[in-house]
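Dissemination and training. As part of the outreach component of the grant, students in the summer workshop were shown how a complex can be specified as a set of sequence lines and then modelled as a single object. The example used during the hands-on session is reproduced here so that future cohorts can follow it. Participants entered these lines:
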Amino acid sequence: MSDFHFELELQVRDYECDIQGIVNNAVYQNYLEHCRHQFLNAVGLDFARLHNDGIDAVVIKAELEYKFPLRPGDTFIIQLKIKRHGPLRVIFDQQILRKTDNKLMVKARITTVLTKNKRPISADFLVEYFNRAGIVVEEI
Amino acid sequence: MSDFHFELELQVRDYECDIQGIVNNAVYQNYLEHCRHQFLNAVGLDFARLHNDGIDAVVIKAELEYKFPLRPGDTFIIQLKIKRHGPLRVIFDQQILRKTDNKLMVKARITTVLTKNKRPISADFLVEYFNRAGIVVEEI
Amino acid sequence: MSDFHFELELQVRDYECDIQGIVNNAVYQNYLEHCRHQFLNAVGLDFARLHNDGIDAVVIKAELEYKFPLRPGDTFIIQLKIKRHGPLRVIFDQQILRKTDNKLMVKARITTVLTKNKRPISADFLVEYFNRAGIVVEEI
Amino acid sequence: MSDFHFELELQVRDYECDIQGIVNNAVYQNYLEHCRHQFLNAVGLDFARLHNDGIDAVVIKAELEYKFPLRPGDTFIIQLKIKRHGPLRVIFDQQILRKTDNKLMVKARITTVLTKNKRPISADFLVEYFNRAGIVVEEI
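and obtained this result:
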């Protein structure tokens, strides 16, 4: 995990699989979101509480490459690395590895901006939390 | 709709919305998938039946730009245009418009390949169905 | 529909189906909820707006009998009849019929109470809306 | 857990919560199903593999009492007790407890039958697996 700032282990639930017998494409976005929110928790931020304070982390772009499908019973690791792009954008580079063989299943880049009362605010708000947690955020 | 090959009208369901009071990001992938499957139906293909014959349309890449969020009660139009890239890839350029004002909410490019018994097969199989339905598939 | 106060027609979406190739059991609760919320809309109530005013319709009991499963492509009708039980409880008797042959797929009773700022309030609030819409609410 | 045959600990994921800021009612059925399937795994049965062999565990009735709602971040325990009713029915009595205070959030009874190639078969098939795992199945 040396290259990543956070990781989370989960297991496929049968109801997440579709007719093809594999995890439905949309569900990976659920996994990735859950990993991001758990990461925010780990650095002292709470997505639900932030929302109640008028602050929302908004996904503006999601790019997912599906390499191999997860199947019922598979255990997997979601990894996350934070980057910053310009004054507003916080980028989450994420990947999903199958646990048994460390195989890369999904690679994703999720681009977010922070809004306060629906207006974009500087990414500094988040980056300060990350720094305090000892994370050096790369600019790209 | 002149630029698109298919469109589908749906309405947001409250359970598709999350704590932020807007449609959850992952749900748009559900909408886009449902539109693609309805399109396949319209040209004479059935996703579930194809799967039983060992043929699967597999998403290998999804790129989504989230412009504005859909909210409870919103009616929206999903539009779809087919393109082909090389011998294997069928690309679905899709967008979601809010119905009341035709505002662009989500823009997406979904890249798929066809597999038979898990091995990639030529996109010709699909393209022939599209042609028979009078659709000229642009190469990109 | 003579016996029911509201009905809604929907179509199964492939992503709602699971490994068994049929609509997942939990998804029927989504269908039933969507029908209830559309019904509330039809009598002039908005679930999301009510929530913002501190008023929530809370499900306290759900009883579902699964007769036959819906499958990919099936169109179905959800029907709803309102009943009242005591000062607090509003009961939604609901059923799901497959459209092609009117076959009963799911039968459900959903028991709800209304809360304002998390405390139960009289069902009169809802029943008055129903009466204004010309619906006579049976006591059970 | 003395009274139960199996339990599973999970944590609420934010995307499982709806506009009301609480776990959506349908999602509890997902939790309960996941617990049942994990239990089947624990006694040597695999839901997905069974399906491929033509054997399906089919839910014919679900009764859920919603006591208190789970919220973002809550950790919870799902407990399960197996019972048998007549030659065909296997009943799962399940409950969901919030972990911090052991508070009962949801109580459920899920009634299932086993089918082979769509026809009901005796519950003995399952009960033998349970017995081999040292579980005495009460008749009700």
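Chain A is about 25% helix and 40% strand. Students were then asked to discuss how this feature might be tested experimentally.
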